[in-house]
Amino acid sequence: MPRKAIEITLTKEQREQLDTIVRSHSVERRIAERAGIILSCAAGKRNQSVALEHETSALRVSKWRKRYAKYGLAGLEDERRPGKPETYGVAFRNRLLSKLETDPPDGMSRWDCPTLAEQLKASNHAVWRALKKEGIYLHKARSWYTSTDPEFAEKSANIIGLYLNPPFNALVLSVGEKNSAQVSTRESGYIETGDQKLVHAYKRHGTLNLIDALNAATGFIKGQTSKTKKREDFQNFMDNVIQDLSENKNVHVILDNYCTYKKNDEWLNRYAGRVYCHFAHTSASWFNQIEVWFEILSCKVLKGAGFSNVAELKNAIEAFIIRHNQSAQPFKWRKPESADSEIKNNISNL
């Protein structure tokens, strides 16, 4: 004897709800089809008749008849499927937060997103999303300074042209100095200053000067440390950079307006017109890509770190340069759009 199907009895309100779903143009087609099946079942039709009417199987009609009888309108929705296990779920979050509690790799003072991704065998975006969800921003900093140089447009076009369309058979270098990097040991705790401010306690062990050259085409860094910051130090550094190049290759050097980069005519004459210096406009060191590199160096090596002597700081900087050059890439140099009030002085110079 065949089993009798579950009887569907609808109230006026339930029937109106189902009719609305069937007529709707915004409801998913599968939900509208299931609502139509229930209306047919409520009319007293057998499963086989309903299946023929809706061009489906009797088993499918029986399934949705039972689901609606048990759960009502919610029974027309799909059941949650197990699916693929989460790749970046709670376990990944816990591993990430645990890794942040450990010391970063040698040559770095703080963790950054790419290094965390490398250590956790995950993508940069996965790490970034997990950190953002926890409200953690490792190196967030924003600043902008408007130049009032009357030659802003001309100098800008010159430097941007070197970045985007360098001369044929020429090397474009972005050169700069990080002066007087402090060698200090950070003590635990705080001290109170005369104006009643609390500051970190530390002990100084001297300073170190760093001059670097960034190859704008490859992102490769060549650096040199020194105890002084004289014009001769700059010239000696550039001699070391140029000696590795062929004699028929010109060098375009992008510099800021630091005094040691000026009055080098006698040194330039030694290279018989092979070396050209391009000076960024005043109050706009951000035009020099080496400043991007110095910010990376500061965030990853210097900030929050402690060094007991000059040699220790020098070794940390050199180790980071080697690490950087192993996967060096050129910077995608750009600046976000500024508000009108920030650029009004520059527009008048164009």
Automatic annotation (TrEMBL):
Top-rank lineage group of the source organism: Bacteria
Record's keyword annotation contains ATP-binding: no
Statement: the UniProt record of this protein carries the keyword Disulfide bond: no
UniProt keywords, alphabetically: DNA-binding, Homeobox
A single MF term (Gene Ontology): DNA binding
Domain Tc1-like transposase DDE, first and last residues per copy: 182-314
InterPro entries for the chain: Homeodomain-like_sf (IPR009057), Tc1-like_DDE_dom (IPR038717), Transpos_IS630-like (IPR047655)
NCBIfam families membership: transpos_IS630 (NF033545)
Protein name in the entry: Homeodomain-like domain-containing protein
Protein source organism: Nitrosomonas aestuarii
